[in-house]
Structure formats: structure tokens, C-alpha cells
Amino acid sequence: MGEDAEEGCLNILLVEDNPGDVRLIVETMAEGFLPHSINIVRDGEEALNYLQGKCGFESRETPGLVLLDLKIPKKDGFEVLEEMRKDSRLASVPVVILTSSEAEEDVKKAFMLEANYYVSKPADLDRYIIMIESIKNFWLTIIKGEK
Known about the structure:
By secondary structure, this protein is of the alpha/beta class. It is 42% helix and 17% strand.
């Protein structure tokens, strides 16, 4: 589920099981000037299949950025992140943890597993949109600048 990546377009993988969060993230990311495509998976197993090019995802592009929720079905975000960092093809892909958890142990574990950034989802809609815009402005600009 996603848009086809175009030449010079950043491919983003969104790993999120909450339909409301998916919609808000996709709509907020769509506003702006930086070309990107967003592919959406809804659980940890599907995320790993996508990332490893298995089970129907054989022709996918390796993402340039992963937005990863921790509290997802089948395999949690920590398991996905750990598998990514063990795979030489995926180890350098930037991962932004985007989760409702503010638990200190979750933050520490995410950074121990080499997450690039950790963001707690605010409950307030306006702050949530500002948070997504900040991620978009920072990460899409940084990654586009590296190309």
C-alpha cells in the first residue's frame, strides 16, 4: 500500500497499526515540497517482510527512512529494529521511533538498538501535526541533502 517511488524521490516505510495515526501522518507528510513516497505496513512481520524483500515485497525499494511504532502486532518495534540492525542491507537505514510510549526504559532500549530518533506521540492533535512536520522537515531535508 503506497505510492510508486519516482526518480529522486525518498521512499519512506511507515510501520503503524493505528488507522487514525496512519491517515494523519500520510496527510501531514503530503504537504510540502520534498518528493517522497510512503509505503505502509501494519505489523512487525509485514515490516520485516517488506524490509527483507519477501512475501510479495520482492520488487520493493529499500526505504530511505523508516517511521516505526513500537506497539505493533505480531513482532513489536524493538524486534523489527533489532532485525534491521543485524541485516547489513538495512543497518544504515535511518529509523525514527514514533510511539505513544514515554517510558524511559523504552527510550533507552530504542537507542541501545541504534534508533536514530525517538518521538513520543502527543495526545493533542495540533502538537501531533507539529511533531510530524518537524520530522518531515528535519529528516527529509537531511536525507535529500545526502543524495
